[in-house]
Structure prediction request, 268 residues.
Amino acid sequence: MTTTPLPGRHRPWPRCRHCTGIALDLGSSRTRAWMSGRGAILDVPTVTFSGGGAAHPVQRGTIVDTPGTARMLDRLLTHRLPRTGRPLLILTTPVLGGIAFRAEARLAVESLRPRTVLTVPAARAVAAAAGADLSTPLLVVDLGAHVTEVVLLTDGTVTDARRTALGTSDLDGLTPSTRIADAVVAMVTTMLEQDHTTQTLDAVHRGALLAGGGALRPDITYRLTQHLHAPVRPAPAPHTAAVRGAAHLLAAAHTHPSSLSLCPPTVR
Prediction:
């Protein structure tokens, strides 16, 4: 049985030929992108090149070189886009990156000539990738390469967050993995102490949802379980959870009736 799409509505990707979409996760160590119609995730180092050689335009969750970030995105993605039309783009952002990160990221993605740029907190994207029930408080712990972030979601909205400039790339013979786990426990403890409701406590009892490359390390997850006295659950493929969740949210935005004004059909 086949159905005919309603007039003025977008088909789900990849069948829709009216517009393209990009989900983008700009990390300090890795940049990950999902593009409509391709089905695969581009996962590459966050590196740009100039006369002085390779440089890292995103450091510790902060965009320190906006033009370099733009050059990197242009090099990685522009040739993969259709020559006609402009993409709908959704960008994950660190919860505590603030207005500065969003502003610099929006400037950088202009190299892709997006028609519209939407932003989503990375923790919310992780929850979407995991199919988490957001009707009850949820604690999301993003164990990145250079930054670790603990976020409380209530009804899908960020209600509290903590961050430390410490990640898995800092671990070596002199810096054990216990430092990251202990930092997470300290942040959760502070959230519990400062929360005058039961939301954080309810989220801890429910169990933390883990994302980022650190969620693949059993030494970290085991210590978190022991010291939080609660279960922890890595998201499926936690290192790519943020971009996959952003892709899911992008697909929903694409088929929403309001997307007609965001991504009108390309004129051929």
